[in-house]
Amino acid sequence: MTRWEDTLTDLVSTRGPALKRYAYLLTASDEAAEDLLQEALLKVFTSGRRRGVPGAVEAYLRTAMLNTFLDTVRRHQRWLRILPALSPRTSVPDHSTAVSDFHDASAALAALSDRQRACVVLRYYEDLTVPEIATRLGISQGSIKRYLADATARLQPLLQSTDGGEST
Description:
With 168 residues, the protein is an all-alpha fold. Helices cover 78% and strands 0% of the residues.
């Protein structure tokens, strides 16, 4: 009766490259083939089924490699199916209020005269001062202040009605 150590040594020395090629054909990766071969050798030679002639052990080892590979594939597919359930749910930000606010602001700006709208955009969007707006539009600072006051008075009720009546 041969010892299992001798059977393992003989199998790996004579059939090792062929077994690794077989594992490579299954896994399509050199590293994964080495891991598969090692795992199958471990399973076969730690179980009680390693007796017999080296040809029978090789056939048994190839079967173990195939089954190990298929188990790994099935396990991976199972993980892919349940992974979405395991990952934390991330909420998607609700941009509907921003879109609604933009639409309301656009509608309110459309209700202003051209000069009032220009003054509001330059003051609150471009962040220009009253003297800078006056220079850019070529009108007096007093007129700019009047346009801004009239625009604010006109916009306030329009924008308050869209935000639930809160004051700004």
